[in-house]
Amino acid sequence: MPFVLLVLGLLGGAMISLLALRTVLIEDAFAITRLEQDYRNLSHQQEALQEQVVALEAPDRIASEAEAMGMEPGDAPLFIDLRTGTIDGDPEAGTP
Fold this sequence. Notes:
Elements (H helix, E strand, L loop, with lengths): L1 H55 L2 H10 L10 E2 L6 E2 L8
Antiparallel strand pairs: 1-2
């Protein structure tokens, strides 16, 4: 009789251990699924932010905002030829 009780106790312990292990594995699977979903959401958010940055970096938008702030285009640059001492460039090219 003690042998039967020992075997039943071992089987019961093994079943409880398997149940606990399975519960932990299922819990981890749910955590992995949640983390994958968070990763997808963050990836979509990153793409949206990158598109927003590209739109904000557009030269036309920057120029229109600069004009709205009262800025005006600068004059055309002039260059000095250090060998001859002459000034190259058209000073009238930048004036509107």
